[in-house]
């Protein structure tokens, strides 16, 4: 019998395409016992599609009847906090979708309760599972980068305001490009600096294109209902003088449709993450090291495994509750600075 | 008889390769009457090479004997202020090499005296004369960019710490990569925002590689005598929420030997400066506009002409004394923030 | 209940792969009620495959039993005229495959009867539905091209004589490369000139390779049964001095396997259609405008919709009966000139 | 003592840069004895520069004093006929710049007189001397092309209206792009068809851009003084059904700055001239034959030698008087058709 | 009723993916009557999957019950000899997987018995069926290569030691890269020289990487169980002074993941096989002939047909028993030389 | 006064373009005192051109009058031995052009006499001075390659039979491509294996193209006077099982005009020399290390310095007399094997 009984909260595409398939590839470790969505029809359809025994609209009923010990939270951002608090109170480990919450306070509460209850709370920031990121951490640990002092992180779309879902709704999502896209590369950048909290944050947000409308590459959006930032830039300065430059956009008049990368500059070597390239000196000459045969993994599956490892007290590189609180703190300070 | 009588102060390569040849292409407008250098041998050699009648070690003697009405200042940075003040006091228009001075106070003094004496003081920031920059300004004026709200500006070298001159000497140069390279792209970025002064500046400077030594691509430098920053990053935030991200380096573990560019993002269009590309919408579709036949001009000659136009009260796009003061203010605040 | 009851005449691949699937994507608008082919076995197989209720060898019987109000004609070219005349006589709108007919006289007859009976007759020239052509027409309407005065249109294959079907049979097809391939780009070129009839036509046809045989890239053909042109070139001159250069081939000793494009030269801008590029002046400089994110549509579906729009009196860019008559006139004059 | 005594008529750049240097590389064969220009100052300057003994404004005087037996004519087009007739009357062989003359009648007169006087008259169409053209003719002679039935020839500039000289003056030049550029590729195309006279010619000329003005890539031109065609397209049809498509422009809204090429289609092989590629079948498969090591020759020198060979009755591939008459006939018929 | 009744011996992937599907595409010619594997479960599963009537663990029983007249041998290399001898003794034609056997003596025995019994024995070296090889042989036959005097043949993998099967087991496979990969290109090279036996062979084998371990690109292997060569290089010299350079590897510190090619140098032309390019002279100039439209065939199917053609006494390019004996002789001499 | 007095023996292009300019860049170290050539006119012209005081036809006279202590030998190969023996007998250090001599015996004699007389004899194999080779040796010394076990070395020309000089004269040069080109890469390959003598050598030489004639890329050669090999291939096997594959040609039906490279395979890393790339593992992944900023040095100057260093007993990487003897031994054994 598997160690874990998992419940899914949230009936959207991220549950359907990412979390349920990942969990179902681990039948020896975990059983999915229920799907829970405020819209019972959606919950039921999802449960049927994936052969999950139970569907609920009411989470409390789900906890009573199904006794899960693991919960995966796939709801709009505004529900991350309440559902996580409830799950932790029910004694469940929690894997929560990103961003951690709407505010730093929420994220700190969630981390406190997890710590207090001796439970694992983790966030689904799967880029940590790419081969590129694993290689970066290995290069860092082997001293190939020396001291890391500057990072450029960006996640840009040219006209990628989603034409579906709640992405432009401020109340439900808490923000736009930074909450949805920037959070991924910001998490990696903070990892590279050992998740220190920045001493200073200065940033700005924009909504020119979102509010003006135009040709979309991810469907058409309604400029009148556009309430979030379509772009955000920020500079983070750390007490050891390290710095991060962050840029993220749903919409920006730039060349590439989609562009996501990090550049990590250290005293002995610098890395461009995609495709992974290490700029350094070898045998006394300037050298560029390429890794032409890095594989593509199923990063959702790997992150799900990393979460379940953490639940079992095994080493894991999943984004922790404490890291999530720092991450939300940076996001919040960026919005405040703007 | 030409309108202007020019004196050159400083006997180094920038006088020899840039300013004297440019002035001598304008014989109907200007005569070079003297070269002045603290090292009289250098002054004399330079004068002989270019058929300039007089050479001096003492500037005061030069003013007495030659009565110039235009002075070009090509000295180490620490001498920009004293020589400019002297020249303005002598009633001369001044074209001063970049950066304007060592501090914002110096630059403001210089601007005050120029204004007070009704003279033209300008700085030799020649990238303004590239066809690309002229086209950018035309696109801006025609409304093709809409409102400009974010600019990325960088001037990076991988291992380009000069192995000659005073570039790593703090007292003479006042700083490193920002003073020597970053100043060019910062000037353009500020131009694009109508030279507003930023509300906030946050930045950092680094010297890991400069102090550690390594393989150089512009000669070999002495890591023990390395006193300036080898890299600098900064974020400028303006009261209208526009922002500039600035990166500059003499040495950085990055791919390209040399990389200099600006990206200028506006509400209606975005531009990458080199090669000039405009990202916008045309006929309802996302469009990239390329200009395959932009010419390469002699930008020093054009900047010298622009300076002389300003001296004559004609319209000119040369960097003014007031702009130079703002520029030094930003540089100084960046160093203070670091 | 759908507005239209459609019958398919002709049981070949174009019915199977293009027209039936397109119509079946529009279930609210149209029902396919019958398939009709001189070979009843083919008709029945096709009907079964697509769940179409009836199959006929005899069109008259089909009209009696099924009362369609729309007919799609997918037969060899020689049958376009008789089947279209019959369908119009039966009060049906007609979407006829290209080329319109064997002769200009046939095409004019067909247009007359359609007009007389108040019915829509249209030809299936789907390249009009590409995003590129829509963008071209929008650029034209916005004045970005100025006056269009010269067009190069080509549709070339290196060794693409089809090794199946009737493509080399003169009696059934009326011609070769011009009838099958050139007709597409000629239609677009004429559209760009508002479908004026040319004042003069001069052209030639060739059959060297078709009659000699050789290595084929679309199967092997029988050189002894090769009765049509393998290549055709022509020049069309219009009363306003505009001109079209047309080249088309089944077989030609050229580089590309397949090469289909139009270049449209106007006084203010010129366009290369695939990939769409606009050559013009922007901000006083020569500029090339690229559209990197044009999508690929299902052009058959769009043309079927355009035809049904026309049937309902809505605006439509489908090739009309009158345009088809001009098109056949140009083709006929080209053959006569050769 | 050299066989030939040459006089140069015309004092412009083509004499200075092309003809005089070529002749002076052949000192064993030819002596330049005089330069003649209506502007005596120009004639004298040119003679001095190249160490030519005599300079004249009056050709008759030149003939009397210098007794040349070879004349090279480098004047504006309108003077080709009178100077050639005079030279032939004086018993001189003539190498005349292209185009042959202003009209077909002039060119026929010139050919008649040459034939009558037993003298060589040739035109300076140097593309015949490229390695590519020599290889084309060799491939043709070896039967690698089979029967040639279609040729596309173009010589296009995007914005190459010369900002100097008489190029836009109708009276002096007789025409624009066709007379100056198209003539080169038309000559080659006719060569490939053994210089048969076409049965029919249909063409058009345009002047939209020339008259409207705009950004120039060969200096700035005056749109108000623009009297010639900026573009010309034509179709030539031959009695054996072969055809030529010709396009030429000083200005056209196309991609390339300059684009000059021929495609020559034969029954066994097709050639793209620059870079030379032969499309054919080898060992039963479709093959493209590239010639990566073709050399670049001094084509003016080779054409001068070819002319002098012809003067000596040796085999020569220079453009003959009779070919020049056919060439002018085609040009004239194109203009008449437009 | 089909001419041939085939039995498959060996139940691995090569039977499943290559031989059975190829035979089943030829139902008019051959029936598969049985699968035989020492592991009866595997045999049965394979038979079921492909609807083959019988499965056996015991080959003798299979011959008794099923009376095949064709046998395909897909076992580990060490069983090629015993199973082939048995099949030939049973009067069956044999298609045996490569390499022919473990030793030259085995291969000669097999050829002797086949000749003696009047049966066809052939080896499955399918690269002979590529369009490239067919074209090479045609070029050779047409004299386009002149006399072939040197061949470079290589089949290299960077880290392609298979992580499955018996590939690193010396007893079962007889060798490593040469037996598994090099054999393919060596067969082609020998073909090009009309399968002459070399006068001298000099070579070496290596196992540095195989025994050291490392990152694999075809799964992970066990360095402790690595018993074969990971790389082999050899030089073959023939009595007519022709030579072959052979290189093959499972693992080598080279650039490409996989690299397989032949260069064949002749007195009149040289060929690089993939992509096929012929370097020669055409019309007196150095020429490279490319064949951009060579198709990809199903080379297993073609080789199976070639084998069955040989069984029927038809012309065939399959690798014969005699050629297989020469091939094994070269392999054995290479190992002895190492 | 400089330490060395140098005499040049041989009046050809290698003296004029390589050795004299290199020596004259080292005026503090060496004076050129005489040029000696059997053709006194050539000697005198060369001396005059380079301001060398004396010219001789008779070497003995030169030694008497000029007392050099360094001799550079630039004669045809057949004179390397006699002139070197004479120079050593005169007490001079000798830098001799490659190849060392005509036979291994000659080279051993030369090495013996140098050793006996305590003089430096070195050969001018300048590829050792490339940055690439220096980096290779550094990588080898740092253990980045592990144990080197296979090397591919080639120096190929497609049609580079020199149309001048004695290159095709067997008596004067001793051989063709191997003596002139292959010797360079063979020297490097032997260096990489610490200049061990091979245990076995197997090779062949060819002259098909040289004797047949054809299109040349380095002038035209006379096929009737072609006495040497136009191509040579060989395999060298060493007692530690390392191996070298060598290919060299003046003429070969291959793609590139000129192609010169080494691939050096070791147990830990492999190198392609031009452009330098190291294939290895980094941080547990397969990695390719590029060195994009390697400089181009004046390799003749560096080799001349290395020779003079050796003369002074300093460390030097110049090719020694002993190495030259091994090199000639390999060349001789290759010719014998062919």
TrEMBL record, chains A, B, C, D, E, F:
Residues 141-271 form the GFO/IDH/MocA-like oxidoreductase domain. It comes from the Bacteria. It comes from Nibrella saemangeumensis. Residues 4-123 form the Gfo/Idh/MocA-like oxidoreductase N-terminal domain. InterPro entries: Gfo/Idh/MocA-like_OxRdtase_N, Gfo/Idh/MocA_Oxidoreductase, GFO_IDH_MocA-like_dom, NAD(P)-bd_dom_sf. This is Gfo/Idh/MocA family oxidoreductase. PANTHER family: D-GLUCOSIDE 3-DEHYDROGENASE, UDP-N-ACETYL-2-AMINO-2-DEOXY-D-GLUCURONATE OXIDASE.
